Amino acid sequence: MSAAQLAALARTTEPNTMLRRFLALDAVVTGANGVAYLAASGPLGRLLGVGPGLLLGLGAFLAVFAAGVGLLAARPRPAALPVRAVVEANLAWSALSLLALAVWLRPTTAGAVWTVLQAGTVAGFAALQYAALRGRQSTSA
Q1: From CA 25, how far away is CA 17, in angstroms rounded?
Q2: Can you give the residue range of the structural domain that contains 118?
Q3: Which of 19, 22, 49, 55 has the fewest CB atoms found within 10 Å of its own CB?
């Protein structure tokens, strides 16, 4: 997604709408990733240099997480505590992905690049969601 597309997505005067949009975007991207891991764990495992069993487990986790984030995004005013939990889970995912890459994964070059890119994307979701939550809280204070 380009910076212009991201700016257009976020363009709103309502911080709550921005928060819901960033949660929904996270749910869609995470869900697509989870479904891809579930549906094509063998071919993706070979491409990325990761075992298909690991991808199946990650895919199941991501699909469930995405469903939860999607339900949160569908609420008219997502509660702060669950949003913070999503932000923290995204930050943990990003950090653990990079730690796994450094410590125990031995992926292909494509797998290493994918791991870094997805960790950055997930950290970006966390930053956007946190900023939108803070913006919503500052307008209601």
Answers
A1: 12
A2: 14-140
A3: 49
Instruction: Say if 6 falls within a structural domain.
Output: no
Q: What is the largest CA-CA distance in the chain?
A: 51
Tokens of 25: 């975007």
Within-domain flag for 7? no
Please, how many CA atoms are within 13 Å of residue 52, restricted to the half-sphere of its CB? 8
Residue burial 123-136, b: 16+ Cβ < 10 Å; e: rest: bbbbebbbbbbeeb
Q: What is the CA radius of gyration of the chain?
A: 16
Count how many domains the chain has: 1
- Contacts of 42 by beta carbon, 8 Å cutoff, 6+ apart: 52
For residue 24, which of 58, 62, 72 has the smallest C-alpha distance?
72
Give domain status of residue 18, yes or no: yes
Mean pLDDT calculated for residue range 55-66: 98
